[in-house]
What we know:
Blueprint: H1 2-9, H2 12-19, E1 22-32, E2 35-46, E3 52-58, H3 65-86, E4 92-98, E5 103-106
Parallel strand pairs: 3-4
Antiparallel strand pairs: 1-2, 2-3, 4-5
Amino acid sequence: AAALVARYATSDVAGEAAAGEARVEVPFAWDWDGIPVHGQLDLLYRTAAGGWCVIDFKTDAVDSMEILVDRYSGQMEVYRRVMSQLYPGARVECLLLSTKLRRTIRVESAT
């Protein structure tokens, strides 16, 4: 665990998050066309360009980042839509961080 924390702490993602406005475990509640949706963002930070980045930490025992994208792209799309409603016009990036693979991957918008 210490090695994972050290690796994250020296990553570009951690550096950018630390440089600006960052929040951890951010709860949200949202109405998606009459369907209540609630959850928690693991890490949310303002990017240098003024947009927002959502990072979701995953502990799945997988062999590739693509498996995580397949599993969680829907969840990340919900996060993207929530943030787009809260901050209209702002660029929203979504990343998955695999604790097993010690890597991050950007999850592109479904739309």
